[in-house]
């Protein structure tokens, strides 16, 4: 081994937030490192970014070391781990490795959008190994809420890092193997330098319930339902989709699919054999032809997405799909923090139609795919790391996980954030650098910086509206005709009843009257003066200052 070689870790997403997971591991001397990337996910934008649905990690740093990037390795197929691949991979052009199910979803997404660059995912077997330069990556099966989830044992000349990915301990998963405690213990026996571990449920004591219990409860709720049943869950949760399908088959009900994301997942799940023995599902076109008591509808929209199937049902605006009093809707999901208002709106819309709504507040119809504290403690006892790096969590989760790791006897704990370059070996682990990082926003078909002025302008527009003004001056500085004014988002009258258009007109003409001929002949000076005057006048009359755009036309 050459002198000066180091093993480093750097997250560009997922540390200090839940979602948008993207991590780098580097090996070599500074300036000569080779890297692998683990996951490339997205997160969902909040109301503070109007018009934006998705957020992606800023990969400027990765682009700068692109020639040294040996590959992108996927732990599992959730959108917060693979959702940014479609938009970001063309900037990297590296090899991509995933298990069969994750590869199937990535390929299906690319096949549905001809504008995307061709992506060839190289398939790795669960339990298999992958050699990439100084890295050897082993895919260790773990239980999670999507098939073929894997922890990664990343071996290097300076030690082994276990990257947990998303996982839980479930002794009775309904799909796929349980978390491989025996293999993780054997890796721990070899010696583990560092554990980069999921922190999502670190605030909760005990262990998560099993997926088997959810399947049993869903079966009973479907069997007892007097009318139609709608089950909404994450489109990627194939175990849950299978549980609903098995319950429907056992109770003599047909399954209808509502939502394109779910259709895509089901197609890949069938190709991979996870729905063997399950009869074909129907499209919503058959909804009105099937008897109410013999129907189960699997629908997207568990997080309140306004264009998803369930939101449209709540508004009674989903084609031929109509719900009626006595029908039952089951939310087999957890509301992600920040989505409570949207989900509540859908529930209220359903209840107003006389529909019975069941959530995890009253029934065990959902379990998390992430580990609670007792489970985390067991994982540490298996791999026995010298260093702990809490990951996949908000600042509170990371801080709590760090304290918990120390209580378990881990001496070196590094609480890092996105962009922090963490030295894992040699020597004492520490944050040694910070690289460029941040968020990009998916704005329609375009990717822009999350702080792009256009997004900030939308926030301003939503708060105070816009006034567009066109004024024509001739060569002598005289106004030609009447100014053209268009207002949007402003109240029609002030609180004393005066027309807002009158307020604007008075401000425009008063400003023009007070402008000297020299400034009238200067388009920029005239526009700035009118803009300031109109903003001030409307602000005084309304209490809010709108955006004001002024166009000076020279006749």
Q: Would you mind describing this structure in some detail?
A:
The chain is α/β, with parallel strands linked by helices and 555 residues long. It has 16 helices and 27 strands. It has an 8-stranded mixed beta sheet with strand order 8-7-6-3-2-1-21-22. The model has no long low-confidence stretch (mean pLDDT 93).
* Strand arrangement, major sheet: 8-7-6-3-2-1-21-22
How many separate helices? 16
Are there runs of 5+ residues with pLDDT below 50, and where? none
Average residue-wise pLDDT: 93
Instruction: Estimate the helix proportion, in percent.
Output: 25-40%
The span between the termini is: 76 Å
Descriptive tags:
555 residues; eight-stranded mixed beta sheet; 30% helix; globular
Layout of strands and helices, then pairs:
Elements: E1 6-13, E2 22-28, E3 34-40, E4 43-44, E5 54-57, H1 60-64, E6 69-73, H2 79-82, H3 85-88, E7 96-98, H4 100-111, E8 121-123, E9 129-132, E10 135-141, E11 150-156, E12 159-163, H5 181-190, E13 194-198, H6 211-224, E14 229-232, H7 238-250, E15 254-258, H8 260-271, E16 295-299, H9 309-314, E17 328-331, H10 340-352, E18 356-358, H11 373-383, E19 387-391, H12 395-407, E20 412-413, E21 420-425, E22 430-434, E23 439-443, E24 446-449, H13 453-464, E25 466-473, E26 484-488, H14 500-514, H15 517-520, H16 523-542, E27 547-554
Parallel strand pairs: 3-6, 6-7, 7-8, 12-13, 13-19, 14-16, 14-17, 15-16, 17-18, 19-20, 25-27
Antiparallel strand pairs: 1-2, 1-21, 2-3, 4-5, 5-23, 9-10, 10-11, 11-12, 21-22, 23-24, 25-26
């Amino acid at each position: 081994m050459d002198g000066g070689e180091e093993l480093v870790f750097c997250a560009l997403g997922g540390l200090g937030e839940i979602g948008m997971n993207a991590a780098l591991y580097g090996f070599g001397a500074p300036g000569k490192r080779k890297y692998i990337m683990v996951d490339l996910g997205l997160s969902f934008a909040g109301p503070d970014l109007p018009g934006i649905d998705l957020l992606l990690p800023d990969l400027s740093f990765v682009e700068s070391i692109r020639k040294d990037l040996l590959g992108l390795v996927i732990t599992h197929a959730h959108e917060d781990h693979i959702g940014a691949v479609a938009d970001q991979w063309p900037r990297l052009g590296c090899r991509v490795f995933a298990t069969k199910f994750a590869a199937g979803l990535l390929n299906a997404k690319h096949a549905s959008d001809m504008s995307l660059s061709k992506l060839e995912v190289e398939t790795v077997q669960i339990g298999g190994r992958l050699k990439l330069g100084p890295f050897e990556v082993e895919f260790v099966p773990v239980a999670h809420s999507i098939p073929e989830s894997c922890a990664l044992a990343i071996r290097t000349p300076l030690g082994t890092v276990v990257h947990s990915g998303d996982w839980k301990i479930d002794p009775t998963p309904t799909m796929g193997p349980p978390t491989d405690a025996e293999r993780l213990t054997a890796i721990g026996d070899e010696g583990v330098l560092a554990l980069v571990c999921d922190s999502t449920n670190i605030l909760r004591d005990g262990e998560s319930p099993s997926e088997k219990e959810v399947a049993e409860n869903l079966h009973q709720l479907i069997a007892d339902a007097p009318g139609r049943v709608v089950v909404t869950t994450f489109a990627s949760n194939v175990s849950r989709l299978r549980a609903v399908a098995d319950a429907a088959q056992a109770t003599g009900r047909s399954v209808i699919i509502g939502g394109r994301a779910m259709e895509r997942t089901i197609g890949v799940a069938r190709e991979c054999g996870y729905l063997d023995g399950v009869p074909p599902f129907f499209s919503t076109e058959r909804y009105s032809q099937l008897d109410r008591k013999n129907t189960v509808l699997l629908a997207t929209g568990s997080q309140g997405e306004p264009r998803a199937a369930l939101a449209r049902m709540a508004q009674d605006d989903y084609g031929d799909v109509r719900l009626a009093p006595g029908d039952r809707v089951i939310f087999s999901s957890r509301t992600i923090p920040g989505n409570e208002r949207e989900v509540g709106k859908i529930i209220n819309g359903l209840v107003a139609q006389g529909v019975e709504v069941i959530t995890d507040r009253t029934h065990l119809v959902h379990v998390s795919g992430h580990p609670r504290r007792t489970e985390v403690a067991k994982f540490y006892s298996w791999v026995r790391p010298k260093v702990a790096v809490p990951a996949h969590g908000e600042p509170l989760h990371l801080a709590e996980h760090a304290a918990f790791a120390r209580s378990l006897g881990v001496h070196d704990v590094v609480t890092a954030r996105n962009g922090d370059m963490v030295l894992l070996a040699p020597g004492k682990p520490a944050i040694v650098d910070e690289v460029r990082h941040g968020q990009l926003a998916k704005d329609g078909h375009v990717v822009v910086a999350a702080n792009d002025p256009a997004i900030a302008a939308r926030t301003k527009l939503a708060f105070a509206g816009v006034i567009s003004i066109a004024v024509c001056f001739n060569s002598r500085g005289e106004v030609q005709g009447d100014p053209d004014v268009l207002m949007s988002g402003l109240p029609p009258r002030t609180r004393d009843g005066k027309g807002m258009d009158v307020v604007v007109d008075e401000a425009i003409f008063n400003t023009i009257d007070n402008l000297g001929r020299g400034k009238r002949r200067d388009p920029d000076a005239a526009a700035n003066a009118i803009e300031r005057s109109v903003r001030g006048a409307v602000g005084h009359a309304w209490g809010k200052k709108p955006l004001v755009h002024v166009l000076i036309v020279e006749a």
